Amino acid sequence: MAVAEKKANARDALLEAAEALFTTKGFEAVSTRELAEQAGVNLGTIQYHFGSKTQLFIETIRRVMSRRREQQPLFLDNRPIASRAQAIEELCVFVYSFLESVCHPVGPDVCKLMYRECLSPSTEDPDIFEALVSSVVNEFIRPVDQRLVQIVTTLQPELGADEAGLIAHSVIGQCSFYVTHRPFVTRLRHCDCTCEPTFSAVQRHVATFSLRALGVSEVEIETTLRRLQGRALESDAQRFKKFSQRG
Amino acid sequence: MAVAEKKANARDALLEAAEALFTTKGFEAVSTRELAEQAGVNLGTIQYHFGSKTQLFIETIRRVMSRRREQQPLFLDNRPIASRAQAIEELCVFVYSFLESVCHPVGPDVCKLMYRECLSPSTEDPDIFEALVSSVVNEFIRPVDQRLVQIVTTLQPELGADEAGLIAHSVIGQCSFYVTHRPFVTRLRHCDCTCEPTFSAVQRHVATFSLRALGVSEVEIETTLRRLQGRALESDAQRFKKFSQRG
DNA sequence: GTCTATAAGCAGATAGAC
DNA sequence: GTCTATCTGCTTATAGAC
Hints:
2 copies of one chain form a homodimer.
Chain A: H1 10-25, H2 32-39, H3 44-50, H4 53-71, H5 84-103, H6 110-119, H7 126-155, H8 161-180, H9 182-189, H10 198-213, H11 218-228, H12 232-245
Chain A binds a DNA duplex through residues 10, 31-33, 41-49, 52-53.
């Protein structure tokens, strides 16, 4: 489509274009001609700098995923959790921020990339599969999982690692549902749950549902949500947006 | 690959081959030549009977999804729920059976099909998108959602339709997590959660987590799971397998 | 390091014989 | 209704001039 942006460096221009095209359309659907045109470079440049379309894709995955990690320190900064009340608060902040980050990505949509590519035939290439899985796990899933396990074991210190892990899956699963099932839920409910006013209800529900399952009382939940209202949650979302936009 | 099965009818042979190939490899990754070869028919037969590869794919989606619905009446037969105790039991049966059906599909893997195709560029074709979304919602998501809403509103009759729907999302989201995140969780946990002995722990966890969030007491949960152990859950899984295999 | 030109192959769709 | 042969357009990758 649009071409002719200033290019400092053919290699970097290609990586930029690859990021934009691969994350929106997927590996198979993007042709090398399209990549070259978007980057404003010659077709042969891809072979010269990367050797193949596959290798360019792999480098793009690594770049995107490692940037994603830098962009989400907000609810993952592993600030120590001193009290039960703080753990409850951190879980709320986590759910609100994580849902925001997966439903309304500001940069490239890494969720779409990982779900699409992990099911698509491109992953029959073992190089692509390995790059995808290791990048996604190290830069995206593991930090999220670790933070959740930290929160959960503060709330229930008697829990083993396996049980805490399963609880982390339940929280992540509830959130990513709205990404993986989005078109189907939109049709089913006749509204897009990732848009307001439903989105706020979704955030509140996932936080509440998870806290109830963790044995937190209604009073504690209400108090925390009211305390956070208009303060930490919003400021955290703000911080996320600001941080992401400068990335 | 393998060819030369007896073909009663070229059209049916093509639909059979299309089901096998499209569900395992996806729309883009299957060529018309491959389809014709697998079906043991001539290449031109596809155009003659279906007009295009796209139309053959759409008919395949409809066929697969409507068959899927017939295969899962077990936890969706909408048998009336008379008591709170029965609602708790039905939720357990639902979670165990639903997880089994999505993690260990006996026929074509409809989950893989829907998640892959819904993110892939094939859905830029509005005909494919419409066929996919309406089939998935009508034959797969809505029955599951309705059953869950029925169970949840028995447990908490004061709930509105929106809140009950959000709880249904939470249950489905927890289950489908193990499908959509399977390769990543396998790497993260160094074991495949869809295989024993972890799979049983997952089933038990999702049921317990959801019931706790619905305010069901530990005693009620324990009693129900113990009662179902070796009886309803297993027999329901058996029924599912038997029913599916004859499909 | 970047360019043009082209190779080699596969895609979906079609024309026309039978 | 099924076949063969072919058309047109696309893909990735490469060879060689500059």
